[in-house]
Amino acid sequence: MQELNLIRGVSAAMDIGPTSTRIAFVQYSHSFNVEFNFIDDPSKVVSAFSKITYQFGGTNTGAAIAFAYDNVVQSHARAGIQVKIVVVTDGWSYDDVRIASDEMRARGIEMVAVGFAGYRLSQLQDIANNPDQEYLYTGNNGDDLKDLIEDVTKTVCKTDGTSLTRSTGGFTPLDENVLTMIENSYTKGPENVDD
Fold first, then answer.
1. Has residue 194 been placed in a domain?
2. pTM of the full predicted structure?
3. pLDDT (0 to 100) of residue 2
C-alpha cells in the first residue's frame, strides 16, 4: 500500500495537463489490471486514484511491463513524446524482468525502478536505465518512500535524456497535509492467500 502512496505522491507533484505530462496506472501481482489509461486532467487523476483497491498476490514484474506496453503505451501514447515506465515493487519477481525492460529500452522507453521492503536489487538493476543513481530507488518503509517522492518525480519529469543532471522542472514540493491525504486515500483489498 505504501507503493501506491508513492505513486500518488509523484503524480501530485507533477505538472499534469493536455500539453504537458499525462499518466496511466497499471497494477500487478500475479494478474494485471489497467487502473486507468493516460489522463491529462489533475482532478481526474485524483478521482482515478481514489477508486484503486490495492492488489495483493505474487509478483510477475516482467509480464506486467509487457502488459503495460501492450495495453497502455502501444495504443495510447502520443507520437513523438518520451514515454517513461516507473515500476514500483515490494517484492522480487517470479519471472524475468530483464527481457521486458530491454524491449522497452529498445523502443525508446525510459525505465525507472523503485523497490520497497522485499525487493531484489539485481532485478531493480535489470529494470532501471543506467546510471542506477538516476533511475533506481529503494526504501524499506513508508518514511523512506515519502523521502523518494521528489527524486522519483524529478527523474520522471526530466526531459533531457542526455543530461546526468536532473531537471527540477515540473516538480511542486508537497507539504505534509498533502502527504497525509495521499497516505489515507487508498482502499485495501482482500489479501490473496494463493501465493
1. no
2. 0.80
3. 66
